[in-house]
Amino acid sequence: MTVYQVLTRLWGSGKFSAFDSRSLAYLNQLGVTHVWYTGVLRHSSGKNYVKGNIGSPYSIVDYYDVNPYLADNEDKRMDEFERLVKRTHKAGMKVLIDLIPNHVSPDYSDSHGGIPTLGRYDYDWSDTDKIDFSNTRAWTALEDIVSFWCSKDVDGFRC
């Protein structure tokens, strides 16, 4: 198994579409079996507490969404991500994305009920809020998140 990690926003134009069939064929020719697309899940950006204007890909604001800036058309961003998954599979490789199971952004929100947090962070991770695993709702929420991305044909996660 050979995993190729890429910070998605730094590949070519920084869009999902930059991973075209030619680029993916090249990775496959190198012997890559899995492409780990880092920074796909929607994270906080443009807030006063984020690290740099674009923010950290580990300050998740919504586990059920992808970053709008990765799409050519922000309104079609999930469709564009799903097409990236299909192109990657067609090129003979599997898709990995980050799953950040221990913290979220301080402004985390989703339409699925959210995740209970502790309202605090560790060290200098001021752009995060620790998930409260003493609350079993957090366990169920993360199981639901994994199921959601598996339904999008994501093959695995880096946790």
Question: Mind explaining what this structure looks like?
Answer:
The chain is of the alpha/beta class. It has helices spanning 21-29, 77-90, 136-151; strands at 3-7, 34-38, 41-43, 60-66, 94-98, 103-104, 129-130, 156-158. A four-stranded parallel β-sheet has the order 1-2-5-8, covered by helices on one side.
Task: Please give the structural blueprint.
Elements: E1 3-7, H1 21-29, E2 34-38, E3 41-43, E4 60-66, H2 77-90, E5 94-98, E6 103-104, E7 129-130, H3 136-151, E8 156-158
Parallel strand pairs: 1-2, 2-5, 5-8
Antiparallel strand pairs: 3-4, 6-7
Secondary-structure class? alpha/beta
Gross geometry: globular
Radius of gyration of CA atoms, rounded to a whole number: 16 Å
> What is the overall pLDDT average?
92
Q: What is the CA-CA span between the terminal residues?
A: 18 Å
Number of helices: 3
SSE string, helix = H, strand = E?
EHEEEHEEEHE
What is the beta-strand fraction?
15-25%
- Helix content, binned percent: 10-25%
SS elements, strand count: 8
Question: Mind summarizing the main beta sheet?
Answer: 4 strands, parallel
The largest beta-sheet arranges its strands as 1-2-5-8
Low-confidence stretches: none
